[in-house]
Design brief:
heterodimer, A: 481 residues, mainly alpha, Serine Threonine Protein Phosphatase 5, Tetratricopeptide repeat, 74% helix, flat, disordered N terminus, B: 608 residues, mainly beta, 5-stranded antiparallel sheet, 8 helices, 7% helix, 33% strand, globular
């Protein structure tokens, strides 16, 4: 028997193979029509970006990538309905690719279309069962629809492929919380914290769970942490969605991404994004103000001044501009100008907690303690768990001889542990001592010393040690017959 | 200094967290996927009192046929002034004490008072650009028709109107009217003869700035109504900030762009004069971009607390400490933020016992991409976010909600929900087809034993119409036992959504008259006690929703399929009066008016 197949059979096999490769790939006429996209009066660079993508779809309407690319752009500029259509087109053209139904599901979820989103996400899951974010998104969808058991199953699937996925553990915490299982909630949150670090929602959920258990002290500690981290969101690893969001070149997005980079210590990359934001929209006050902050913190005051000038030309009376100027001048040690800038900011927005705290600290430096107290009080009236305001106010009251007033503030912030805690505990111990509660003062100093050693804070360690010695001597003297 | 630079930098970075237009625009949802047809879903046999809905429409707009022709004007000139998109309100109250609810609608003016109406980019409605008072002719004519009595009543106020609050401030048996404005507020005393007198200056409650919602209640239990007024942001037409959508299109700004304002509490001194006691009672300097307000006893201590819904900032729950002080408990009560600690854009707020467990729960409407949020009370002013559990999560994501209230649309004893929707940012999908692309459909939810089902799809065409709805006031305007909705549309017509829910259950209305307490008994808690059934708690209020005042008769839906339907029925009704007295009334509900009038001091002493 010949090893060579007849020619007609080869041709037949070739076409069969080609068809198999296509799967059930849709023809152009079977695709949903490309939606009308209105980019009129968009920022010029964004308009161009979208127009290019539309042009590619017109040129290659049967190519999944061009359709999907336009979908991504529309998604990132929040045109979810049009985006989902483009993702559906791409998904029909590329039937083995999981990204398109995944992104379509995300877009439909944004629109509150639970059933349609679920179908798309399940399709994505069939195509790529090990991509964790699909299960996480399904779980979120089920949570919103109060389908808890399905949410739990989806999370468990996500954890099979990645047992350390913090979003999945966080959903387990949410599920436990809504079932009133406070201890279980805390357990899951501890795992999340281990995997993901601090973020606002984590501490808020902790506080709710502890309050449910009746541990109001611990609940308040987490509320304070919540205040500290409330602008920090959980770090989610989702490369597919990450790529989509990075396509967004709007000023707000660039500024947001730049801020994240700064928090992560990457100032150079942040500056690049911010300069791009200013280039895209020279009239963006937010971009200029953020640049003032980043340049001045890098001691590049000349560049900061350029952006102060640019922002002032846009809106000379903006409270946030003057706040940024105040911070810049503080870093430059130009205290009088910093004070003036914060005062100007407060003349526009008198109750802003951050500005009141900053100005309070400057006023303290200038021995204007009475005024500083009123600034801290104002800050606390707006942000009752503002830690810095409590600390500074507690210390000031102590220095003015009002130990019981001081205790009220310092005790409220003693539980949260961070590098500032040893110093706070030192002040608290002094307040106890002033109230002749020497035992508590010594216990607090011991705690301060332990934490100071943990944070390598040598001056605080020495100070605590010295005070312990002093108070013990006092104790001995008073106990002496 | 170097060591602290990082902290300073982070502080500096925080300043623009929300400063530009970070709120989200998106397209209108596909109704068939976002909503549920309940002709089958609502048939839950778990509670014999629950009523099912058929496929018929539930509400119809009768504004035109009732001669209620009101068109709201926003006075826009293309400058995207924030005031344009916020109004406006409505009050339902029986101003002439003839037994039916009259309608007061708030009008705006040119948003920039320096510009003329000819410069408006939208058509100017016919007739005077003033608030309008419409007298209901149901009694004695027998049909729901309205007569415009704005001028003769003295209520044709002109200004950039926002909302209204109603209460019998001088305890003389008729309802007085407080108007909030972008600009000075106005207070009208009812003369009892169909006319009102402007007593703003003498009363001392003309706050400048931008007041949104306001509400009366007797917080110090001295027998007269005090006033809480909610202020928004320090917006100034001359210093209008330019904001942009994600794509860079010019759009309306969010509240974060402007400094928030401080709310005010005014104590009624009993002589027609109010004193501003905000600082004295601890409300003082607490600023927030407030839009909604409700009074209720959240912790069951018989003192009325007040809740303020803030737009994009922490909500405030002020717990009343014996009428002397208020303690802010938003954060600790779990009502400042949603379950994830997110500050949502709270617009409207309503309070009621949606789960019939005897305490008051809170529901707030929010921005597109945020859910509306249900805070469930444990009776001690500790709340948890029960939004998803109650079925209110996903369906609210595509909409920006404003006016909303718990109300029993089918008289089954379970409080349902209506949400008036309309965006505050340009709807991307509407930009090409609308000259005011903020339109969204409204939503209606049926409460099935504590879980809500979205029944919007069959609610009626006006509820599903694409409009920019804002306020919604609730009351039985035709006294037929169905709670109707007076809906206002920003830059559009007011709608009178008459309740035509088929097979509604029986009902009884309770009207309280205080003698020691304030005359209209605002804040009183009322419980309907029936053998073999769980107690049903309601309270006397006309506040809540958004910029609105409501029918303050207490409506008890008695459920359907009762053999006693249309027969006189004997009830026990317990009342906790605003001054703390507890009384029990054993009454027979007449089958004609379905209205019971209970007077303080005429019941039996009662302990719950």
């Amino acid at each position: 028997m010949s090893l060579f197949l007849p020619r007609y059979l080869l041709i037949t096999l070739f076409f069969l193979g080609a068809l198999a490769g296509c799967g059930d790939r849709a023809t152009l006429s079977e695709l949903p029509p490309v939606p009308q996209v209105d980019t009129q009066r968009y920022l010029r660079v964004i308009q161009e970006q979208i127009d290019v993508a539309i042009g590619q779809v017109e040129k290659f309407p049967g190519k999944a990538a061009t359709n999907g690319n336009l979908g991504k752009l529309l998604y990132t500029y929040e045109q979810y309905e049009s985006a989902s259509i483009m993702f559906d087109r791409a998904g029909l053209l590329e039937t083995k690719e999981f990204r398109w139904p995944y992104l379509s599901g995300r877009a439909k979820a944004e629109l509150g279309q639970t059933d349609a989103a679920e179908q798309s996400l399940l399709r994505a899951l069939e195509r790529r069962p090990d991509y964790g974010p699909i299960n996480v998104q399904l779980a979120e969808l089920y949570l919103k629809a109060s389908r808890d058991e399905e949410a739990r199953t989806a999370v468990e699937r996500a954890l099979i492929s990645d047992p350390d996925r913090p979003e999945a553990h966080f959903i387990l915490a949410k599920l436990a919380a809504r079932n009133g299982e406070a201890e279980q909630t805390i357990k899951h949150l501890e795992r999340v914290e281990q995997l993901s670090g601090n973020f606002g929602a984590l501490h808020y959920l902790y506080s709710q769970a502890y309050r449910q258990l009746g541990d109001h002290e611990e609940a308040d500690v987490h509320l304070a942490s919540y205040e500290q981290f409330k602008d920090v969101t959980a770090n989610v690893v989702d490369l597919v969605m990450g790529n989509v969001l990075e396509m967004n070149i709007s000023v707000n997005q660039l500024v947001t991404r730049a801020k994240r980079l700064v928090v992560g210590g990457n100032n150079a990359a942040a500056l690049k994004l911010l300069e791009q934001a200013v280039e895209n929209d020279p009239d963006s006050l937010a971009a200029h103000v953020t640049l003032i902050g980043v340049y001045s913190s890098n001691q590049r005051f000349a560049e900061a001044d350029q952006h102060i000038a640019a922002a002032t030309a846009i809106d000379p009376d903006h409270s946030k501009l003057h706040y940024a100027i105040g911070v810049a001048r503080m870093i430059e040690q130009r205290i009088t100008e910093a004070t003036r800038a914060f005062e100007r900011s407060l003349s526009i927005d008198p109750r802003n907690a951050d500005t009141n705290v900053q100005l309070g600290m400057l006023l303290e430096q200038q021995q204007r303690e009475g005024e500083a107290i009123s600034k801290y009080e104002m800050a606390l009236s707006q942000a009752p768990v503002n830690r810095v305001a409590h600390w500074r106010l507690g210390r000031l009251l102590l220095n003015r001889g009002d130990a019981s007033g001081s205790l009220k503030h310092l005790e409220s912030i003693r539980e949260q542990v961070d590098p500032a805690t040893p110093e706070i505990l030192l002040d608290l111990a002094r307040a106890y001592a002033a109230e002749t509660r020497v035992d508590e003062a010594i216990a607090t100093l011991e705690q301060s010393m332990e934490l100071a050693q943990r944070f390598d804070n040598v001056p605080a360690t020495n100070k605590a040690r010295g005070l312990i010695k002093t108070y013990r001597q006092q104790q001995e003297r008073s106990n002496a017959p | 200094m170097k060591k602290s630079s990082y902290g300073l930098m982070v502080l500096a970075l925080g300043v623009f967290a929300c400063s530009e237009n970070t709120e989200k625009d998106q397209s209108v949802p596909t109704p068939e996927t976002a909503r549920v047809d309940v002709s089958s879903a609502a048939a839950d046999p778990s509670n014999g009192d629950s009523l099912s809905l058929g496929p018929e429409a539930l509400f119809e707009d009768v504004a035109g046929s009732a001669n209620l022709n009101f068109e709201h004007f926003v006075g826009a000139t293309g400058e995207y002034l924030m005031t344009e998109i916020m109004g406006s309100g409505v009050a339902l109250f029986d101003y002439d004490n003839d037994g039916d609810l009259d309608v007061y609608l708030i009008q705006a003016a040119m948003a920039d008072s320096a510009r003329s109406v000819q410069e408006s980019i939208f058509p100017v409605p016919e007739g005077p650009l003033t608030n309008r008072m419409y007298r209901n002719e149901l009694i004695p004519q027998g049909s729901l028709t309205f007569t415009d009595v704005s001028e003769i009543s003295g209520l044709a106020h002109s200004g950039y109107g926002m909302g209204a609050a109603v209460g019998d401030v001088d305890n003389d048996g008729d309802s007085d009217l407080y108007l909030t404005n972008f600009g000075p507020n106005v207070f009208y005393l009812n003369n009892g003869d169909g006319t009102f007198s402007d007593v703003t200056q003498a009363s001392g409650i003309s706050a400048p700035g931008w007041t949104t919602s306001a509400a009366f209640a007797d917080y110090d239990r001295d027998g007269d109504l005090d006033l809480f007024s909610v202020d928004y942001v320090e917006f100034d037409v001359v210093r209008n900030t330019q904001c942009f959508s994600t794509g860079g299109r010019r759009d309306y700004c969010g509240p974060q762009v402007y400094p928030p304002m401080v709310d005010q509490l005014y104590r009624n001194d009993g002589s027609g004069v109010f004193s501003n006691v905000s600082r004295e009672v601890g409300i003082g300097d607490s600023a927030g971009p407030g839009l909604g307000v409700v009074w209720a006893d959240f912790n069951g201590d018989d003192w009325l607390d007040v809740f303020v819904a803030n737009d994009g900032a922490a909500n405030r729950l002020w717990l009343n400490d014996n009428g002397q002080r208020f303690e802010e408990a938003g954060l600790r009560s779990g009502t400042a933020y949603n379950a994830m600690g997110g500050a949502e854009a709270s617009m409207g707020v309503t309070v009621g016992d949606y789960d019939n467990d005897g305490d008051v729960d809170l529901f707030m409407t929010h921005l597109i991409k945020e859910t509306n949020t249900l805070y469930v009370n444990n009776g001690k002013a500790q709340f948890f976010d029960g939004t998803d559990r109650a079925g209110l999560g996903a369906s609210s994501l595509p909409s920006t909600g404003f006016g909303s209230r718990f109300f029993d649309m089918n008289n089954d004893g379970w409080l349902d929900l209506f949400v008036a929707n309309g965006n505050v940012k340009l709807e991307e999908k509407r930009v090409a087809v609308s000259d005011y692309p903020l339109e969204q459909p409204n939503q209606l939810y049926l409460n099935k034993d504590g879980r809500f089902v979205d029944v919007s799809a069959q609610a009626g065409k006006e509820i599903n119409a694409l409009e920019v709805s804002r306020s919604a006031a609730f009351g039985d305007l035709d006294n037929d036992g169905g709670m109707d909705i007076l809906l206002t549309n920003n830059n559009g017509p007011a709608r009178l959504l008459r309740n035509i829910v088929p097979d509604r259950g029986d009902w009884v209305d309770v009207v309280l008259q205080g003698t020691e307490s304030s005359r209209d008994a605002t804040g009183a808690r009322v419980v309907l006690l029936r053998s073999g059934k769980a107690p049903t708690w309601r309270h006397v209020s006309s506040d809540g929703s958004y910029l609105s005042a409501h029918d303050k008769r207490v409506r008890f839906g008695l459920g359907g399929n009762h053999s006693e339907k249309n027969q006189p029925v004997t009830f026990n009704i317990g009342v906790i009066w605003p001054r703390g007295m507890r009384e029990l009334f054993t009454v027979t509900a007449p089958d004609d008016s379905k209205q019971l009038k209970l007077v303080e001091g005429q019941g039996q002493e009662w302990s719950e």
